[in-house]
Fold:
Amino acid sequence: MAFNQTKKLLLAAATATVLSACYPGAGNVVPDYKAENLIGIPLSKNSKLQSSTDEDSDKVVVFDKTIRKVHHFDLETSQHLGLFDVEQPEEDHFLIYNSGSNYFIDMSKRHVTVQMLSGETNKTTTKFVGTPISASYDGKQGYLVVYDSQQSVLIYKIDPQGRLVKQFVSGPVVDTLGTIQAGDIAGNGKLVLSIRGNADPATGTVTDYIIAVDIERTIADTNTQKILVFDAADKTAMTLTEMSWVAPVPSSPNLVMIRSSGKISLMDLTTKAISSLPTDDWVVEKYSKIKDPHIIFRKTYDFYSTMNGNVERRMYYVENGTLKTKIQTKNFNYILNSHLDLRKGQWNVTKANVVKEYDLYNAYNNDFFQGRSFTRIRLNDLLSIIDTPIDDKATVEMAGDYLFSLFPSDMGKATTLDIESNKTKTIKNFNIKYMK
Amino acid sequence: MKWILLTFICIGQMTLASTFIGNGGQTGDVELAVSLKQVRGAVERIEALKQEDPHKRYCVCPENYADHNLCEIIQKLTEDQKQYCDKFVLTQLQKLARASQTTQFEWVQSTMVNQNKIGERVVDAVAQKDKKLIYIDQEKFVDLTQSKRMFLLTHELFHMDTFDGKNLDDEDPIGPFKYQYGIRDLLNAAAAGITLTSIDETVFQDYSKYLSQSRSTRRHWVSLMSASTPLQDDRSTRFKTSMDHGARFSYQYQFPNLFNFGLTMHLQNQSGEKSIFTSTRIKQKTSTKAVGITYRYFLFNNLDPFNHFWNTFVQFEILTERLDTDFNMDDGYTNEESSTSSTSPAARISVYFPMKHDFWINTGVSFSDHKAYFQEFDYNLTSNGPTFFLGAAYGF
Structure:
């Protein structure tokens, strides 16, 4: 199986090389097999602790796959704060929570629920066909954009009391321009979407777009046509193509980072200025929007060199309004989660050192449960300053200065590792009173 | 008999005597009832033998039992004495049968001394013809072998009637037994002859089986029973654990002459395990200790003691019960344990069915009022209903 996957990847790479030779000007580009093509951040089978733009969280909510309920923990005091039942406990659940909020958002197949931490539940009546696969959340504005497996775009507005006060549903096609490929809520409060353009009927030319949707006008009652509303000035025809990843830059509300065919670009939504760096024929290993967006490319798909640690990696990120890169030539094997904190000058990585699957591109902490470790790297010189193993079988999330592990324990066991002090606290038996 | 002065000597205890009433309520009752049956059986058999062979001899050692210890009595006799003994046996048969029906028996729990013309001697039994009463040393009688019991009883029953118009007093000479204590030797020889004949004719063995019946008169009792589950989960939560493993042991001292009262002590260990959710193992252990008093009520007082259930009884127990219990939960990642104790009055009602060789089957129901709270689990257990038990007991 794994051998077939490798063969498939090599064959695909070879095919791409042949195809590029047949079409002059197309460039020597390896297909982006793990292109996200999502709005917001992907919802893995495990929880997300916070939205990409929020401050570090000292409290988390996490869906416990063992007892099929949601826990609320305080990482600083190592306390279990509460346990919440969910709709459709048998389904996967995806959570969004801002540490300062008095609610969290629980997404599962065909359902979005806002759960008050006080215990009260506000359920949405929205029925959609697919399963949520990604979401973007702006805790300050109360905007939640959910993208489902059927490419439906669902926009909610949640008031500070956790009520779903507005909701909007749209298909992926935008006007006559084309179809949504990727997007996110930018710092300016608009939903920035990359559009894979339709071919011009006369010339056959394909033009892709970036649009910035006015969320407030889109969800307003006056939007009787039920379409995504944006100003003409917020529609930009792009020279970039196949924009599969769009990430707002937290420090600059008008900047978005874009992954397109053969390039990483930085676009100013106001001036429309675009700066780009080539990605050659490297392949994407990791997309991450936490906390500062960054993409990690790997020079080769070659499994054996990866297994031996002989991997050249290049991280693209935005600092002070400029695209930058950092290069590693030899280090860990497979990246799982990657958090970049430019303010603290830290790059936090969870990684898998034991390889049992070849296909760990753009994987996450809890896609793999063996031989994992956490590494904190000082960004300016890539010095690894902390390296600590992660418990096998534990569902792991990074949250601020804590590494949180939830074990598949019926009775309840979790640990919080204070990364700086390397002290671990155990929270246990928090499920007992609910087990009767 | 008028020369016999019966004395009960007190040896460190009060002199006690009690009447055999045949219901098995006292030590030795079954042995005495069996011996009486054996005497009557022997009389019937010898009557039959007399018809079959008028010349058959009874004061002889049967060929197959030549080394039986009763033979020593016969072997000392002269031929004249043996013939006189045979005549005596055949003559007295019906009187013996009648005496076995009409004589009263009284158990004596102290040493008996027979004081006569030539001094005192310790005896196992004493017959008083005028009162139609035989005193028997209870402890000694029980300790005798079956054949010795029959021999002793036959000897004493001969005293209850006359021979050739004369009372049969041990000290007197008679016939070829021309010396003091001649009658005693004659009665011994006749009793030995009848006993050996009944053994040889297997009449004796017909009643032996009744001796293997379990006796309620034992003083010490041990019992092993199924554990009585004192704690129950009223709400039937997922924590509810079936206490499948465990047993209850009890020791009981039964006072021999105190209106069927006794003292008892119980020890019980019980445990249960179960799995819940994906990997959680629950283990519950309970240890119970109890002391109390017992009272027995015999259900079938009027039954023939040879009926298998004649000494079936119901036992009532009032106990003070102390219960220590642990509740443990482990899922491979973490564990929690909680312990608690409870003291409560408890009651047990059980029926004891006799088996063989002093083994009993007992079954019944117990009640208690325990309350246990496992704080770490916020879990309550109470004893809110009867629990049933089944066990086996042994008396010794």
Summary: Residues 283-400 of chain A form one domain. Chain A touches chain B through 15 residues (CB under 8 Å). The longest strand of chain A covers residues 252-260.
